[in-house]
Amino acid sequence: MNMKLAGSVFIDRHFHALTHKNYRYMWFGQCVSLIGTWMQNIGQSWLVLTLTGSPLKLGLVAACQFLPILLFSLFAGIIVDKFPKKNILIITQSVSMMLAFTLAALVLTDTVRYEYILVLALMLGLNNTLDMPTRQSFNIEIVGKEDLMNAIALNSMTFNLARIIGPSIGAVMMAWLGAGWCFLLNGVSFIAVLYGIIHIEAAPYVRKTRAKEGVLKEIKDGIVYIAKDPILAPTVMLVSVIGTLAFNFNILIPVFTKNVLHMSETTYGTLMSCLGVGSLTGALMMSFRSRMGPRMKVSMAASILVALCLIGNGLTGSVWTCGLLLALTGFFNIMFSTNSNSLLQMSAKEEYRARVMSVYSLVFAGSTPIGSLLSGWIADRFGANGAFIVCGGLTGLLCLIIILKYRGAKGTSSPSMQEAV
Fold first, then answer.
1. Which of 15, 360, 386, 392 is the most buried (most CB within 10 A)?
2. Which residues contact 301 (CB under 8 A, 6 or more apart)?
3. 36 and 187 in contact (C-beta within 8 Å)?
4. Cα(206)–Cα(209) distance, integer angstroms
């Protein structure tokens, strides 16, 4: 009984978002589904590299997967606010499941071609364009503002625990049975998250559209709102830099493993798991301190530390050193993304939140095509080491410029800014 009470106190203190029944449904479903997602991620990257041998073509697949987010996420933010988010998520998660089964069928029947992978990546990107801002803005409906940062930290913890487990299982499965089984199990894993979403009972927020308010005007209104806010503007700018230049691991790590370390898919899975271990540790730390709320200084400091870790990765040729640096990269990445996500959601007014999160999706994931093609091109010309160094150097330089430009914002009269700093 004492153990049960102690466990309850621990959850209430550090994982208090789990005290909400609706969030538990979502979280447990994601625990299963994200393992499958990471199995597919590493399976697809290794499959493309095996079929083509080209880092640039691997970068093109990632670009296709994220290009729709770049093009359409601003429009998605308008749609998300006008329909119940639960219904949107049921549709988007079902589509993701079907796409995973399709890729599995192509591989298992030996009919897969590089062009087919490009088309499926593009379709998944279109689906994620709607799914990402919906999931981001749905959190506050099922946990409230007080527990939002804890929910975001728990989501990050789940994501990165899956990043440890998924690549490890996926690497073994690829070595024994082939990549097709990674895609098949990913498709099956969506059943868990669909079950959780269906059982959520939350009062949906649906924004009423004002007369004569067109889609383009709503998008412009949201962008102007972000640009004028002393918290939202620098946070979005930092996220755009990190999202473009510092989140290209699906391109750089397999190329680094194959061409620099001269190792197999097992080492690739291990390095991806190292990234996940660091990220999981960072998510746990952010969960424990979530009652303190997000701080602008955390995002600023973490962005510079991410850049330094990327440069360090480019200077090493050792598996052990690379694993350690990737763990540190994951740790600071999660510090940055969890804090920045929380800053945006907690600072935005309710009527703007979905539009703010659609911009977040645009700069965080939608910028990936640019970063993927850039890192793939650099890796093609100068090797994975060069790509790590260039991406890290650019990340550090641009983030430093943003930090210096906005550090004077502490003196603003905005009460939310005073609280965030």
1. 360
2. none
3. yes
4. 9
